[in-house]
Amino acid sequence: MSEFFRSSIYGLVPERCVDCHETSGLVQCDDCNMISYCGTAHRDEHRSDHHKICEEIKTYRNDLQLKEAALRTHPADFFTTGVGSFWSIRETRPYMMTRLNAASAYVEADTVRGVEEALSHYTDMIRLDRSDHLGVRNIIPGLLLRLRREQECYDFIKYWATTNPKDVNPAADSTTIKSGNAFEPIEELLNGKEELILSQLVILTLLKLRLRFDLSKYETYHRGYIHTRQWGNVPLAPTPGLFDRPMGEIVKKAIDENRTASLPAASTIQAQYQQLLDIVHARNPHFWELMVEGEDKEDDEGNDSERVEAENEEDTTDCDDHGVPRFLVPGAPGSKKEASEAVEHCADAWEESGTALREAMARIGADTAAYVAVYNPSPSGEDAVSSSHASASTLGHDTAPMTWSTPPRILTISLQDDDYIKMRYEDLVTELDAKAATMDWATTSQDALNALNLQPAYNIILITDPAITHQKKLLNRVIDRIRAGATVIIACGFGSSVSQGEFNRMFGRIGLPWKRGSYHRKWMHLRGPPNVSAKLARHLPPRYSQKAVYVCGMDQSAVWYAESDTHDEAAVVFASVGSGKLGYVGDINGEVGSTPVVLAMCGLLG
C-alpha cells in the first residue's frame, strides 16, 4: 500500500512541544507529566498558561493515591471482594468520584498522554463497577476515536448494545467484544439487548462517517489504479495531498491485509450514516443543533464548580437512589440537558476527524440542516409581540421592496472585517450612506444586539459576512426584526466564505427552504414582472456577469437574477418574511451591477 495511506494522522496530534510543535528531544512537565516541551525554555515560558490544569491534575492525583491507599488497608479488601459492584459499597464512593474528576482533568490536558491515562482510568472504573453508575461508558467511545482506535471503539459500542451488564460475571475482565464488523448494518446494534445511549449513537455516527470518507478515498485511488492498468501503464501511487484527509485504522488494515474485496461500497456506509443522523435526531431533537451551533453562554455556566464542590464535600444529601450526585444523573431522554452532555462527550472526536478545516463538523453542519427548527420566539415586550404575529409561516410572494416616506435608518452588521467591506464595496457603501438618515456599523455581536434594541428601530439591516451564522442570539434578533417589518439584505462578503451547512441552517432557521447552490461565474438575467416591476426594472441592469454563490430551493417568485427563466438556481433572490423583506445577493466580487440591485432591495433606487 502507498506510504501516503500509512503516514496519515487521525485524532489527537502526536506528542509535540505545545509551544513550537517540535517533535524531537521532548521533555515533560515535571509536575503533571501530561504536557510536552522541546526543552526547559519553552516549558518555563508556558508555565503560566499551564499552571491551572497542572495544579488540578496534581491535586486529584495525590488525593486519589490517598483514597486508594485507605481502601486497600480496609479489612473488607474491596479491590478483591467488591470488583464489579464497587459503587454499591458506600465506602468506595469518594474514591470513585475522585477518580472520575482526575480522569476528567487528564482529558483537559488535551494530549495523547493525558487522554490515554484518562481512558485507562475510565476503563478500570467500569471493571470495578459493571453497572457504571457514573456513566463513563458515555465518555469512552469518543476517547477511543481521539486515539485513532476505531476497532476498539466499535467493539465497545457493540458490547454495550448486545450485552446486559446484569448477565455478566462481575469478575470478568472484558467489557468489550473483539474484532466486530464495523461495516455491518446498524440494526445489529439497534436490535440488541440494550438501547444505546445518545453519546454512543453519536460516536457510532462519526465512526460510520469516517469509514465512508475512507472508502470514498480508496475507491478514488482504486479507479485511478484500474485506469492505468487498462492503458498498460505502471500504476501511479496516489499523490500526497491529493486527498486532504487521513486514512483510518479499519479501512487501512483491510488494505494492508489485501482484504479489499470484502470492503463495502462507500454508498452503503453513507446510507448507514444518514440512517444514524435520523436516529440521533429522533432520539434528541436538540442534539445536532447544539453540536453544530453550540450553546448559549448563559446555559453553560457553573457546572465545573458544582462538580468540584460536590466531590470535595462528599455530600450524600443531594443524590439519587443509588447515591449518585444529582449533577451526574443523566438528562432525561430527549432533553436539552441530555443533548448538552452528549456534546461534551463527543465534540472533540468530531473536531479532530478529518482535515484542519474540520471536515467532519462541516459535513454534519450540512447534513443536519434539514433538522433545524424554525425560530419562533416566546413573545416578551412590544417588539416581540409584533414579531410573533409575523411568523415564518407567513412567507409571502410579494417581492416589491419597501418604500420610505423619510430616509431609512441602516445598520450594517460586519463581524469579520468591516474595513475590507468598506474598501471592497466602496461604491455601495457610499450610495447607502448618502441615501440613509443614518448608516451605523456593528462590528461585534454585542454591538449588533445593542443596536437592534434601539428605538427607533433600524429599517434596513445589511449583513456582510457569515459570522452571524454562529451567533444564534444575534441571528434570532435579526429574524425578529425581519418579521416586524425590517428589510434585511445578505450580500457583500457573505457568499465568499459561507459553508453549505452555515448557509442552509441559517435560512432554515428563518423559515426559508433556500439551500446553498453552485459557485461559478455566469451571465445573470433580470426577471421581469411579476418578480420585478417594470418601473423598477428600468433602473436595473437587464443582465450582468457575476461570480457568485448561488441559491437553490427558492420559490420562483423570489428570483430577481438567474441564468434563465426556468433555471433552478439564482444569484439574487428577494422574498417577504412576516411583515419584512429578505434579500440575498450571491455576487462575491462587488460587480458594478450589484450596487443598484442592493439599493433597489432597500427601496432606495430611483
Automatic annotation (TrEMBL):
Give the keywords, sorted.
Metal-binding, Zinc, Zinc-finger
MYND-type domain: from which residue to which, for each copy?
17-54
* Keyword check for Zinc-finger: yes
Which residues lie in Acidic residues bias regions?
293-303
Q: Name one GO molecular function term.
A: zinc ion binding
- Do you know which InterPro entries this protein is assigned to? Znf_MYND (IPR002893)
Q: Which Gene3D superfamilies match?
A: 6.10.140.2220
Return the protein name.
MYND-type domain-containing protein
**Organism per entry:** Podospora australis
